[in-house]
Amino acid sequence: PASEAAPQRLALRRLFEERLSQFPADSRTRLAGQLGDPELQALCFDPLPNVARALVENPRFGLVHARLLAAHHPHPTGLSALTKKDSFLRDAEVQRMLLRNVQTPPTLLQRIFHQRRLIDLFQLGIGREMPEKNKIASREALRARWSSGMSEEKVDVLFRTEGRVLSQLVGLALDQKSAALFCHRTVTSLLLVQNLARWAGTPPSVLAHLLKQAVVRNQPQVRMLIFK
Q1: pLDDT of residue 93
Q2: pLDDT for 215 beyond 90
Q3: Residue 51 or residue 84, greater confidence
Q4: With contact defined as beta carbons under 8 Å apart, do 198 and 191 qualify?
Q5: Spatial separation of the C-alpha atoms in residues 150 and 147, rounded to whole Å
Q6: Which residues contact 149 (CB under 8 A, 6 or more apart)?
Q7: pLDDT tops 60 at residue 114
Q8: Global confidence as pTM
Q9: Where does residue 103 fall: left (phi above 0), alpha (psi -120 to 50 degrees), or beta otherwise?
Q10: How far is CA 177 from CA 65, 88, 119, 149, in A?
Q11: Does residue 60 contact residue 37 with C-beta atoms inside 8 Å?
């Protein structure tokens, strides 16, 4: 639980700052490959990339340590060491900590984003958890996935976000297959209609489909918006 974790993390940080940080850099790097807990966890607070790399090589280094390193390590090179084991990057908590860490390198962010659905990428891009640099990277990943992704997923995210996702897709368009799938579904959200009517990438077939929906019939202003 988080309530237990905070004092424990504080104790580990203190162990690093008061004892382990007194050793010279090369000694810390050597110890990182040999020690067990609690020193092994405490060394996850070490800012040196070489120490981070040595930690990951330590046979005792596991998920507990990977999460600490992802949360607290302040150097892109050190964080890249976590790619040594796929199981670390598959862990939801390691991913969450890396997404919140402003130092996580772009290549590592891309590996995390690659595993996420369009809806997840959209929510990351508007959420409060990540620093702005990582939010921008998630929006770029969303745009790249939109251009190459599955049509079913695109239509699904349009309905689930009521078209809010379109604000991150300026300059892109909806492909023919996605448009055809969209036209087989009933639209009940007025917000989705308005967002699609304002988005330059909405195909004429989709606009025609929107005009036939019951939700639009008694809304002259919305009809005007679609005709524009």
Answers
A1: 93
A2: no
A3: 51
A4: no
A5: 9
A6: 118
A7: yes
A8: 0.83
A9: alpha
A10: 46, 37, 19, 11
A11: yes
